[in-house]
From TrEMBL:
Residues 6-57 form the HicB-like antitoxin of toxin-antitoxin system domain. Gene3D superfamilies: 3.30.160.250. It comes from the Bacteria. This is HicB-like antitoxin of toxin-antitoxin system domain-containing protein. Pfam families: HicB_lk_antitox.
Length: 81
């Protein structure tokens, strides 16, 4: 069995839910009311996406987990217009 590390983007939506997505795995996303539950759900979603990749060659070819960025950043940028 192989160990993978994925970057997960997490935000809180307008309804108060935490939403997570994995840019390296197309369609891999989930939501939850608590941060702790979100982490459990995104791990499950990642596992499911990896299972699909073993069975679906087209999906596997679209995966970017071997080339995912090592850094994501968010910055507030002010523009006067």
């Amino acid at each position: 069995m192989r160990n993978y590390n994925f970057k997960v983007l997490i935000r809180k939506d307008n309804n108060g839910y935490f939403v997570a997505s994995v840019p390296a795995l197309p369609g891999c996303h989930t939501q939850a009311k608590t941060y702790e539950e979100l982490l459990l759900r995104i791990k499950e979603a990642i596992e499911l996406c990896l299972e699909v990749s073993e069975k679906d060659r087209d999906y596997k070819e679209n995966l970017a987990y071997l080339h995912q960025p090592s850094f994501f950043g968010i910055e507030d940028v002010s523009i006067r217009a």
